[in-house]
Specification:
By secondary structure, this protein is an all-alpha fold. The chain is built from six helices and no strands. The protein is globular. It starts with a helix and ends with a helix.
């Protein structure tokens, strides 16, 4: 059940570990974008095979799209100072980003639903890329609103 949620847990855990280990170094966003690009390339390459094998347009068993979408979500997100206070704070920040991405991916706000109809690997990938962009903007707006409040 919930393959997208489980599939996003892997890159979210990797993100948590990089936040915990890096102490605020800026290499994190570049590394995650490379990670997302590799996932996207693999998905475009293997997507047609996966669709044929599972007999579905967007098989739940394929989760590389979640990796790419989450990478876009966390790209260049400024990590608030409070998130570096402890492992629990880092986990809370990571959980917030995870929930926002899962919400945008699940709701399929425009143009996600339309992009999902692209053939094979492109459709599997592009709706999650769009959800990642939406989540990235939403996280930024949430922190902007919290800073003003």
């Amino acid at each position: 059940p919930a393959p997208g949620s489980w599939g996003t847990a892997v890159p979210a855990l990797a993100y948590f570990l990089t936040l915990w280990a890096d102490g605020g170094d800026p290499w994190r966003s570049g590394a995650f974008l490379i990670f997302g690009l590799i996932a996207a390339i693999l998905l475009i390459w293997l997507g047609p095979w996966g669709c044929a094998y599972f007999g579905q347009i967007d098989p739940g068993q394929i989760v590389l799209d979640e990796y790419a979408g989450f990478a876009i979500t966390v790209a260049f997100i400024p990590v608030p100072a409070w998130a570096y206070g402890s492992a629990w704070h880092i986990a809370l920040f990571t959980a917030l980003v995870y929930v926002v991405f899962r919400a945008t991916d699940t709701l399929k706000l425009p143009p996600c639903g339309r992009l999902e109809r692209l053939p094979f690997g492109w459709g599997i990938l592009m709706d999650d890329i769009a959800a990642g962009v939406q989540a990235n903007i939403a996280v930024r707006l949430i922190f902007l609103a919290l800073a003003i409040a």
